[in-house]
Design a protein that fits this description.
There is one protein chain. The chain is mostly helical. Strand 3 and strand 4 form a beta hairpin. The protein folds into 2 domains: 54 residues, no CATH class; 111 residues, no CATH class. The protein has a 3-stranded antiparallel β-sheet with strand order 2-3-4, with no helix packed on it. It has a two-stranded antiparallel ribbon with strand order 1-5. 55% of the residues lie in helices and 8% in strands.
């Protein structure tokens, strides 16, 4: 199934949103410096004329079902990955120190190695914990299992230890309703 695209009607003026620019007529804009013609801004946007039913019909049927075992496997895998990266983080400072003391390298090499490894640690731990947040968010929508109590348990547990504050989680949940 192909997605059908259509352009806006010819009388629609598409203007980028900017607090300093206001639409005043079909062919001019009022900016902070005066009026300017903008015929070049017409028809730069395409709108999708696709329904949710059409999208669901294209997705393979086996992807519409929730698999509790597979979801719990992914949760356990990500918890294990975060634990492994956490334990590796404890080795960064001793490793950087050993470069200077045992291998007689200048201290600048130890400092550069330490900061490079910490940046690598922050990167990977951030990706893993962002995955925790995504799984907790999806559990809140009931996407992990057919059992609501399990979705609530996984979602609450992962949101409790994930980096975003509880207030932002509540605000996101309210905005989704």
């Amino acid at each position: 199934m192909l997605l059908q695209l259509s352009s806006p009607p010819p009388d629609v003026l598409l203007v980028p949103r900017c607090p300093r620019i206001q639409k005043t007529s079909r062919d001019t804009l009022q900016t902070h410096k005066g009026h300017h013609t903008v015929p070049q801004l017409r028809h730069h946007s395409l709108r999708f004329q696709v329904t949710l039913a059409q999208i669901h019909s294209v997705v393979p049927k086996h992807l519409h079902y929730r698999h509790t075992g597979k979801a719990l496997f992914y949760v356990a895998r990500d918890v294990l990955c975060a634990f492994i990266v956490y334990k590796l983080g404890w080795c960064i400072d001793p490793f950087a120190t050993s470069l200077v003391t045992h291998y007689n390298l200048p201290s600048v090499f130890g400092t550069v190695a330490k900061w490079a490894l910490w940046v690598l640690y922050w990167h990977w731990q951030g990706i893993i914990l962002a995955g925790w947040w995504c799984m907790a968010h999806e559990a809140g929508h009931g996407s992990l299992s057919d059992h609501n109590w399990l979705n609530h348990l996984v979602g609450f547990s992962l949101h409790t230890v994930s980096p975003p504050s509880p207030l932002s989680v509540v605000l996101i949940a309210v905005l989704h309703l």
